[in-house]
Hints:
Structural class: mainly alpha
Strand content: under 5%
Shape: elongated
Radius of gyration: 26 Å
Helix content: 55-70%
Number of helices: 8
Amino acid sequence: xxxxxxxxxxxxxxxxxxxxxxxxxxxxxxxxxxxxxxxxxxxxxxxxxxxxxxxxxxxxxxxxxxxxxxxxxxxxxxxxxxxxxxxxxxxxxxxxxxxxxxxxxxxxxxxxxxxxxxxxxxxxxxxxxxxxxxxxxxxxxxxxxxxxxxxxxxxxxxxxxxxxxxxxxxxxxxxxxxxxxxxxx
Length: 185
């Protein structure tokens, strides 16, 4: 059998290419493994999007679960309407303390969202922000609603307020980035 020099060169090139491809695959696997590890480590502070790159998540808050919490849930439209009906008189009652008024406003705002009355929810979260300017939930939820309503400048401002209040809120940074992206900033 006669081996031509060009065959040797092409076989050597093929062998080198095969070795190169194997190393590329190994490096890609390592990079993927590194990214998955980072995702697992950062998962508590970040989550994947429903409509865009970062899904806004509410800041951690302590909740006291008691028997009355069940009556305030609004997973369905009927429950949302009931929540709105129950919260409104308590919000308007001058005897209601600010702490309770904030609780009722947040519950009613969540019910408004279920009913797709986003501007009513924005209004309720705005009232919470006026009563308690340190309430992260109000600013975060209102900013998410502004994003849904394509009011990106207002969303950016609320996320910036959250970052000033709590610089460790990774979701606020990510979501503010989304709002800025929409504003071409």
